Amino acid sequence: MIIFDRVSKRYPNGREGVSNATLRIEEGEMVFLTGRSGAGKSTVLKLIALLERPTRGTVMVGGKNTGTLASRHIPAFRRRIGIVFQDHKLLPERPVFDNVALPLVVAGTPLKEIDKRVRAALDQVGLLGKERALPLELSVGEQQRVGIARAVVSKPPLLIADEPTGNLDPDLAVEVMRLFKRFQEVGVTIVVATHDVHLVRELGLREIVLDNGRVQGNDIDPLPGMVATR
Amino acid sequence: MSLGLTSYGARHVQALLGSLGRLARNPFSTFLTLIVIALALVLPLGLELLVTNARIATGGFANAIDLSVYFKTDVPLAKAEQLAKSARTRAGIAQIEVISADAALAEFRAYSGFGAALGVLSGNPLPHVLHVHPASNAESAESLEALRQYFAAQWVTRFNAILEVLRRLLMIAAAILGAGVIAVIGNTIRLEILNRRGEIEVTKIVGGSNGFVRRPFLYAGILYGLGGALLAWGIAASAVAMLAPAVASLARTYGSHYVLVSPTPQELGILIAGGVILGWLGAWLSAARHLRSIEPRA
């Protein structure tokens, strides 16, 4: 699903977000990106979602090379990826329903279908009945779940999350991770960036450790098929 | 196919209603913008009306039954009467009336409603006038042209030249003010885009195309242009309604039943189409420039 082949990303300010990173994430896998803040976790996610393009190397997502994808194809590319942000990036002036419906609206989904799918997504995150609420009327945990509902409402094959539990207390964090696990069980590939190592160990899933922009443990062999530390 | 079209249409209706809703939510700033656009549009429209009316009011020289011959104000009455006398002998003229400046002033005082104001004038600004009624066998264009040349109506030529100048002025004004409308709408849309930066970013993150993001702004521009044009129509109609009685009185003093004309459906069509096109163009230019600069940075 995702292949990084000797990828480097240098920002205009000269800072290198990712250095010579090689990694591979299989379809249907749930993987954690861990490491200290500033280690390059967010950069890896941005490179996957084409919010950034690599400076060097090749990023393949779902069989597409993001380095060469024409700008006009980016919207269609992004519609196949659900993204969850730490600050959830909800539209504060729009009710929950509109926020969750946005990915379907931009894709031109018929209204009847939108209604059905938004309810289904809200049901999955346990927020059915909150459609008319404004995001700020909800608790932080609920807002995060609205963000997750928005990420999964269009049933993308790939879900990426940047510190989705960063603002949540431990119980809520476990709850959110269980939610992701359930999506993985129905075939969604999931990449979660987090610094919450305990939570990752508890779940016993594959972990890709980043340090200073480098993937730890496999920075020698760039061959596809190579997996990072387990 | 029909389903695709329906959802395509539905998306446009959605974008249109969304833009309308946003404009309605800020009625004061929307109204201010509309006023500015309307003022820019009403000026060319007013000039157009002025030219049209002037042409119609004086069109009698080309095709009507009567001719009026105005003298310079320093021409004495005796000279006018002398000219009338010699002209009466000419073929093709049925009747000539001499209206002295004093008679014209008295009539104007009676009809215009400016009686009191006229008292302020030191002298009589009106000229002596000859009303020439051509003979019924002399109403062809050639005969009238010959008559006109006989009276050496130089001021008619001059007047037409003035109308031509006005017409050119109208085009220049329309071009400048049209550019103004584009700038006003472009700037309004720019502020709107900056205000909704967060929303645009999120929309792009979830896969909204540039076309999708741009659509509501284009509709906003079109609505501004349309609203401004309708307001300009309202302003022009009110101005005509306010001027009409005074113009009618003035026309009566010249023995005419001239009625001030309002904008024709064609002129209104051009006004509204112009407003819509300028609005769309301003919004498009602004959106093309500013939406590109907003790329999601997670």
Structure in words:
The complex is a heterodimer of chains A (230) and B (298). With 230 residues, chain A is of the alpha/beta class. Chain A has 2 domains: 155 residues, 3-Layer(aba) Sandwich (Rossmann fold); 66 residues, no CATH class. Chain A has 7 helices and 10 strands. In chain A, a hairpin with a 2-residue loop joins strand 9 and strand 10. In chain A, helix 3 runs parallel beside helix 5. The two termini of chain A are 18 Å apart. Chain B has 298 residues and is mainly alpha-helical. Chain B folds into 2 domains: 182 residues, no CATH class; 73 residues. Chain B is built from 11 helices and 3 strands; from the N terminus they run αααβαβααβααααα. Chain B starts with a helix and ends in a 7-residue tail after the last helix. Chains A and B meet through helix 1, helix 2 and helix 3 of A and helix 1 and helix 9 of B.
Please tell me the total number of domains of chain B. 2
Instruction: Give the low-pLDDT segments of chain A.
Output: 219-230
Describe the oligomeric state of these chains in a short phrase.
Answer: heterodimer
State the order of secondary-structure elements of chain A, H for helix, E for strand.
Answer: EEEHEEHEHHHEHEHEE
Strand order of the largest sheet of chain B: 1-3-2
Main β-sheet of chain A: number of strands, strand sense, barrel status? Answer: 6 strands, mixed
Measured by DSSP, the beta-strand proportion of chain B falls in 5-15%
| Global mean pLDDT of chain A | 87
Total domain count of chain A: 2
Helix share bin of chain B: over 70%
The end-to-end span of chain B amounts to 37 Å
Number of helices of chain B: 11
